[in-house]
Amino acid sequence: MISSFACKLAKGKAANDIIFAANAACVAAIAKYGPEKITNGTIGAIMDDAGKLVCLPTVEKVYRNLPTNELIAYAPISGLPDYLDKVEVAAFGKFKPAGYTAAVATAGGTGAIHHAIWNYTEPGDIVITSDWYWGAYKVLCRDAGRELQTYTMLNAQNTFNLSALREKVTAVLQKQDTIMVIINTPAHNPTGYSLTTEDLLGVVRMLQEVTETAGKKAVLFLDVAYIDYAGDKDEVRKFFKALDHLPETILGIVAYSMSKGFTMYGQRTGAMIGVSDNAAVIKEFAEINQFTSRATWSNINRPAMKTLATIYADPALLKATEQERDHYYKIIKTRADLFMKEAKACGLPMIPYIAGFFLSIPAKHPAAICDRLHADGIYVVPLAAGVRVALCSIPLQKISGMAAKICAAWKASETQA
Ligand SMILES: Cc1ncc(COP(=O)(O)O)c(C=O)c1O
Questions:
Q1: pLDDT tens digits, residue range 70-106?
Q2: Ligand 1 mean position to 329 CA, how many Å?
Q3: Ligand 1 centroid to 109 CA: how many Å?
Q4: What's the domain range around 252?
């Protein structure tokens, strides 16, 4: 009997998204026991201390006041021109890398990752990211017939493990001509870790050495989805200097997302920005990615693009938006500070947290920890190397006491066979 019509590439695909599964279990527990008894640490969206999904007020005002035409008309395939102009300002701020750049509108940061994998790696190629990573990277690679492989993100001193990345890049470049390295910084999901400017300069230097020696190419893909909640606007953007005048063998791609910075998660709007010292490479970047947009989703959400363009064209609106972001950045930071203080007091290990929506606890048996925590009404996400806690969605009063409960579950699980 014929039980499958799927082509070879599609066969066996089933998106088993652990984050959405953990959230579904949490939603069921809330329905059963009531919201006050349950802590939802699964979701990557900002909830205020009353547990309500946050929309930045200025963003909401600008979006809701757009004329009907801006809400319903098609947009150009590569994005509204004023959006493409302003999204580079939103991403880079004062630190636009020296060289040539071009932006292409994408369906969220996810769309940028999709296009980069599709257009800059060959079928069967290996794509590299760190061992702590956002699970969608793997799904995106697999869907395109590529494979995601990892290097150990932190060394014994808990700093960026450049030598592990070098080793991995060198090994993979023996088998393929281009290597794509995805780095999610600042405020990395799932750990809250950020690379320093020196770290990134080290990555660029390393990629240059390895590619020049091997006569190969590298795509350095910087996923900056959380950049607007990573600290002082100018301070956190300094690392873009590492992309100044990139060597010929390296193409930089920066993935910008409106999901977090504008609290517009469901509006599916982002951009990929190519950075190179070669004008021809950037011309090609704009052309091939526009083509893939046409072939994937055609054009994206016009009102969301217009919202960003409107805010970044008006200093008063921008100031208000930045103050609102800062307010929520501080709310998340207060939650993180309390969690870290309590984690330290009870001896719970953590990956170094600098900023962002999440923190992570390394563990041998992440699923066992999460299961045990259900008895305490706490829902967090089990990953391959540990447990992810979404600080962005947990009210401060529920953070209090959480580290001790996670620590008890962690201790119990570490001793299990
Ligand atoms: C690490 C990381 N990159 C990119 C994204 C992009 O999200 P979106 O496609 O909603 O812009 C997310 C969202 O959760 C993320 O966690």
A1: 999 999 999 999 999 999 999 999 999 999 999 999 9
A2: 17
A3: 5
A4: 59-316
Ligand 1 binding pocket includes 134 (Cβ within 6 Å)? yes
Indicate the number of domains in the chain.
Answer: 1
Q: In CATH, what number is assigned to the domain containing residue 123?
A: 3.40.640.10
Dig out the tokens for 242 from the structure: 């590492």
Is residue 203 scored above 80 in pLDDT?
Answer: yes
Q: Is the CB of 108 under 6 A from ligand 1?
A: yes
Structure token digits, residue 70: 């801006």
Is the Cβ atom of 189 under 6 angstroms away from ligand 1?
Answer: yes
- Joined tokens for residue 417: 């066979």
Q: Is residue 237 part of a domain?
A: yes
- Show Cβ contacts of residue 335 under 8 Å, excluding neighbours closer than 6 positions: 391, 394, 396, 399
**Candidates 42, 259, 267, 300: which one to mutate for ligand 1, based on the most atoms within 8 Å of Cβ?**
259
220-242: pLDDT as tens digits: 999 999 999 999 999 999 999 99
Q: Are 15 and 139 in contact (CB under 8 A)?
A: yes
Q: Is the CB of 70 under 6 A from ligand 1?
A: no
CA dihedral 164, 165, 169, 170 (to 10 degrees): -40
Ligand 1 atom nearest residue 107's Cα: 9
Give the helix/strand (H/E) hosting 147. strand 147-151
Query: In the structure encoding, which two tokens stand for residue 259, read together?
Result: 């999901």
CA-CA distance, 63 to 310, in Å (whole number)? Answer: 9
